[in-house]
Structures are given as structure tokens and as C-alpha cells.
Amino acid sequence: MKLVLGTIATLSGVLFVLSMASANPGLLPKHEGYPMKNSGSPVTGQPTANDPGQSDARGEATLLKSADSIKSAQQNLKKTDNDRIVESAGAGRLPKVQGPQIQIAPPVTSATKIGADRKIE
């Protein structure tokens, strides 16, 4: 049983690798290219750019295309609990909200001093 499963896994892996190797690059989407001039190799004279003759990929049109491509993934999340806040009082303080104003008393109202006549046992 292990031999059959191993054979099937190996065969499907080989077929997958062959399908990737034989992919048609003509089916890939066209892009605007990279900012490389069509200079040749100093040794052979072959073009060194991946796509010689393509225009520069930088520019306003490219930025607009990239901004449009993420609109489907954009999230506009709003916390509904913050609708009541009228004014923020700063760090560590409660904000002013619509409705009743909640006051929190400090945990200690006055300090206690131990005199010399009092002994702690």
C-alpha cells in the first residue's frame, strides 16, 4: 500500500514540475517594464535587460493602477462605540461623551502619617 501511495505521489509531483516547466510565457500578463535601457553586455553584446524596449514602470499611471488594485481588499472599519465621544480629555482621562458624565473617585483620598508615638507591631 505504501509503495502504491509513494508511486502516485512521485508521479503527480513529476507531472506538476513538468507542467510548470512547459508553461507558455506568452500567456503571462504584460507589464510596463523596468527602468532599464537596452544596453548590451560588454562581452557578448546581448541585451542585459529582462524586457528591452519596454517603457519605464515609474509614473503616475503605474501609481494609479496600483492604488486601484487594492480597492477590493480595502476595509473601512468603524468602531460604533466611539460615536458618543464629544471631546477627548487626553491620556489617562475619561472623554466627554453624550449622556451621563461618569466620575471615578481616586482610590486614596488622603495620606496617613504615622507619628513617633505610634509603633507598628
SSE sequence, one letter per element:
HHEE
pLDDT < 50 runs, ≥5 residues? none
Main pleated-sheet profile: 2 strands, antiparallel
What would the average pLDDT be, to the nearest integer? 75
Give a written overview of the molecule.
The protein is mainly alpha-helical and 121 residues long. The chain contains two helices and two strands. It has a two-stranded antiparallel sheet. A hairpin with an 8-residue loop joins strand 1 (85-87) and strand 2 (96-97). The longest helix has 20 residues, at 2-21. It starts with a helix and ends in a 24-residue tail after the last strand.
Could you list some keywords that capture this structure?
mainly alpha, elongated, 25% helix, 4% strand, 121 residues
Secondary structure: elements and pairs:
Layout: H1 2-21, H2 60-69, E1 85-87, E2 96-97
Antiparallel strand pairs: 1-2
Compact description:
By secondary structure, the protein is mainly α. Helix content is 25%, strand content 4%.
